[in-house]
């Protein structure tokens, strides 16, 4: 079964061809990061326009690389939620055009499920399992049952993890997007420099706004006094605390649900400390910690095609094919 994946929920335009939910025949991504960098964040209107400009070329490239034509495509998997509405609509409208013109049914895909299914490409994932979703817009602990039904066990009450990385980096003036820069600086700083108290949050929910504010307050204080600060020490203190909290809660969830695997998903799954620390802690508990290779961590269409494949395999009693009235949705629970 050949699925054409389409992703345009934020600032990456991507089209992929995936065979049988496992074999990536092509996965072309056009990132707009360099365009948005000068604004310090994604500008929605610019993102939509860039998607429109690039999407047809990316389709041509992906089909060519996979050595197929649209006649070979069985289904289109497209991200329809959540994300920037204008950006989502470019992918959804493009998918509908292809569907109508070439008689290819559409399977609508939840972006976060795409991030989770990225793990299924390179690993033997066994359900039930637990997924830790960490991206620019999401921080959730999800339980996936044996029928691939998703249950949200908890999530952030304020900022998403990636969002707080980006905000902390912005205040320190170290660049955009902040995640990868803070991650690198962690190893050059003292993680005990700033004492950050862990917020008291029940169950599997999280709060990152206090941790973020602790760093921001320190930077502002130093600026007011006209003193310099060492961003490496703040990056190390921030990342150390964030990874400690995420690891603790997701391990607790895995033990409570008695699963043997934890999947890390979303852009922050690229974080080197989260990967190594959670893997080491999991090993001690007999829990395998799985994460995608770097290319599949950030937004891409291969993960969307894989998620569409599993939606097809496990429809859970739902009609999974969308009509031409499919719309994008800025927010949607998993
Ligand atoms: O999943 P993603 O590509 O887009 C969303 O759907 O949000 O995630 C982007 C987020 C950004 O906030 C970025 O700073 C963060 O992922 N990120 C990282 C790392 N690489 C990307 N955060 C921490 N450490 C990293 N190495
Ligand atoms: Zn994403």
From TrEMBL:
Binds 1 Fe(2+) ion per subunit. CDD domains: ASKHA_NBD_TsaD_bac (cd24133). Keywords: Acyltransferase, Cytoplasm, Iron, Metal-binding, Transferase, tRNA processing. It comes from the Bacteria. GO terms for biological process: tRNA threonylcarbamoyladenosine modification. Transmembrane segments: none annotated. It catalyses: L-threonylcarbamoyladenylate + adenosine(37) in tRNA = N(6)-L-threonylcarbamoyladenosine(37) in tRNA + AMP + H(+). Its main location: cytoplasm. It is found in: Cytoplasm. Substrate binds at residues 133-137, 166, 179, 183, 271. One of its GO terms (molecular function) is iron ion binding. Its EC number is 2.3.1.234. InterPro entries: ATPase_NBD (IPR043129), Gcp-like_dom (IPR000905), KAE1/TsaD (IPR017861), Peptidase_M22_CS (IPR017860), TsaD (IPR022450). One of its GO terms (cellular component) is cytoplasm. Its cofactor is Fe(2+). PANTHER family: TRNA N6-ADENOSINE THREONYLCARBAMOYLTRANSFERASE (PTHR11735), TRNA N6-ADENOSINE THREONYLCARBAMOYLTRANSFERASE, MITOCHONDRIAL (PTHR11735:SF6). Required for the formation of a threonylcarbamoyl group on adenosine at position 37 (t(6)A37) in tRNAs that read codons beginning with adenine. Is involved in the transfer of the threonylcarbamoyl moiety of threonylcarbamoyl-AMP (TC-AMP) to the N6 group of A37, together with TsaE and TsaB. TsaD likely plays a direct catalytic role in this reaction. Belongs to the KAE1 / TsaD family. NCBIfam families: gcp_kae1 (TIGR00329), T6A_TsaD_YgjD (TIGR03723). This is tRNA N6-adenosine threonylcarbamoyltransferase. It comes from Cetobacterium ceti. The lineage of its organism: Bacteria, Fusobacteriati, Fusobacteriota, Fusobacteriia, Fusobacteriales.
């Amino acid at each position: 079964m050949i699925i054409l994946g389409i992703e345009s929920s934020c600032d990456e335009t991507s089209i992929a061809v995936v065979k049988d939910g496992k074999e990536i025949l092509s996965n072309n991504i056009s990132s707009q990061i360099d365009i948005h960098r000068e604004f310090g964040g994604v500008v929605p209107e610019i993102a939509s326009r860039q998607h429109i400009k690039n999407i047809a070329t990316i389709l041509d490239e992906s089909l060519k690389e996979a050595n197929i034509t649209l006649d070979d495509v069985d289904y289109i998997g497209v991200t329809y939620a959540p994300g920037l509405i204008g950006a989502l609509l470019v992918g959804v409208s493009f998918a509908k055009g292809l569907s109508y013109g070439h008689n290819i049914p559409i399977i609508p895909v939840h972006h976060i499920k795409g991030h989770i299914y990225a793990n299924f490409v390179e690993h033997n994932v066994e359900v039930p399992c637990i997924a830790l979703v960490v991206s620019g817009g999401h921080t959730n602990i999800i339980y996936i049952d044996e029928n691939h039904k998703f249950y949200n066990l908890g999530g952030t009450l304020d900022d998403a993890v990636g969002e707080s990385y980006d905000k902390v980096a912005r205040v320190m003036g170290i660049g955009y997007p902040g995640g990868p820069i803070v991650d690198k600086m962690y190893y050059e700083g003292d993680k005990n420099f700033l004492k950050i108290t862990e917020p008291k949050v029940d169950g599997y929910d999280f709060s990152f706004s206090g941790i973020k504010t602790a760093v921001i307050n320190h930077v502002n204080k130093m600026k007011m006094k006209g003193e310099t600060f060492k961003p490496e020490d703040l990056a190390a203190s921030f990342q150390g605390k964030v990874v400690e909290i995420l690891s603790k809660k997701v391990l607790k969830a895995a033990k409570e649900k008695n699963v043997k695997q934890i999947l890390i998903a979303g852009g922050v799954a690229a974080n080197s400390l989260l990967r190594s620390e959670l893997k080491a802690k999991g090993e001690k508990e007999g829990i395998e910690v799985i994460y995608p290779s770097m290319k599949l961590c950030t937004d891409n269409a291969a993960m969307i095609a894989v998620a569409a494949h599993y939606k097809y395999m496990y429809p859970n009693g739902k009609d999974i094919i969308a009509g031409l009235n499919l719309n994008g949705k800025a927010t949607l629970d998993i």
